[in-house]
Amino acid sequence: MTTSPDGIQDSGTVLVGTFNEPGELAPPLPASAGMVLTRGWAGSPEVLAGTGPDAPSWLVPGRAGTPSEGRLYAALHLSEGQLAVLSPSSPAAGDGVPQDPRYDVGWVTSQLVATGGSETCHADLNPSGTWLAAASYGSGTLTVVPVLADGRLGQPVAATAPGGSGPVSARQQEPHLHFVLFLDDDRLLVTDLGADRILEYSIRELTDGPGAAGHGQPAFVHTLPPGTGPRHLAVLPPLPEAGIVERHLAVVGELDSRLHLLDLDSTPEGFREVAVVPTCGQDQDPESALENLPSHLVLSPDASLVYVANRGRNTIGVIRRSGTPELIAEVPCGGDWPRHIALGHAGGAPTLFVALERGDAVVGLPLDADGIPTEARTRVTVRRPGFLLPNL
């Protein structure tokens, strides 16, 4: 892996996690596999290989210097959710790696662990690489699994979110967990899109055993405005040049099309909301937010901009951090239904890569001198892409 002076990974390749379920059928076309390896982003990108488990819609690289180093972990978006442990493939015969290079993405599945939930959609490692946490949207299940000394996974612990709901009846009749984020080795945040809240768990308390007081219950519940539908999170560092001296937690509201900024260092009983900014241009029709459904967010290398993918409008919203954050641009994403975005380089140029779930493609949007994404310059066909990992 190479990194440019501005801190963005150089994307000679992009590994794509998808919603595809090849199952036990004969090897599918590489572009329709579970994981798809692409290359050539400096000019004309192409699919190099495809293989992997079913529906690995989120990928988590192991952390350097920890038991997880050298592994890749995948959340499998299936009716019976699983976590996959992936190991580097070897050219040696007899290790289960297809000899045809079209089906070798560099990783093979070495372990599958049931999450105890349905539609497992996201996972995260703690900083020490000793615990893997996962959220299952369909069942509202949080799963935490110890990472063993060899990088494999131990016995999972599953907890069901406390009952809750929200005002958007079509999406909020019950808890729907969507994202997990470790703040440190013990403190874990979990978004509940179905009940407009962020659940905070202590790994130590969660895994002390069924007899422990409060076992399976969150340590704190951080409430958000009704109808927010919190989806994804990111920690925003201080930005002194913009007058921001605190860490903020950025929360994408899938149902209200807003980015909620919370003071991460306020009392743990409830993060204080410091700002709310739209992720897209506001229409006169207030119901339009329910059709936009923003998905993922990433932070620019200098931490001054936040990029948010708007699925319904097929755009990327660019939000500038300042004393009063503002939406400074909304640009086309290059196709249909931007599920995930990631920063990298295409031929040395800073680029925002976009997974177009319904457009069956991955595209690259070069960034201009101000960090604003421009028109898509590169494109490759991949069926149902859900996650992008530049140059692992």
Largest sheet: 4 strands, antiparallel
CATH superfamily: YVTN repeat-like/Quinoprotein amine dehydrogenase
- The CATH class label is Mainly Beta
Please report the total strand number as a whole number. 28
User: Roughly what is the average pLDDT, rounded to an integer?
Assistant: 91
Q: What is the third-level CATH name, the topology?
A: Methylamine Dehydrogenase, Chain H
End-to-end CA span: 6 Å
| Spatial ordering of strands, largest sheet | 3-2-1-28
* Structure class: mainly beta
Number of domains: 1
Report the order of strands and helices.
EEEEEEEEEEEEEEHEEEEEHEEEEEEEEE
Description:
β25 (349-356) and β26 form a beta hairpin. This protein has helices spanning 203-206, 289-292; strands at 13-18, 35-39, 46-51, 56-61, 72-76, 82-88, 107-114, 120-125, 131-136, 141-146, 157-160, 177-182, 187-192, 197-202, 220-223, 230-236, 248-253, 258-263, 272-278, 294-299, 305-310, 315-320, 326-332, 338-346, 349-356, 361-366, 378-381, 385-390. The protein is 2% helix and 44% strand. The mean pLDDT is 91. It is globular, with a radius of gyration of 20 Å. It has 392 residues and is mainly beta. The chain is built from 2 helices and 28 strands. The protein has one domain: YVTN repeat-like/Quinoprotein amine dehydrogenase (Methylamine Dehydrogenase, Chain H).
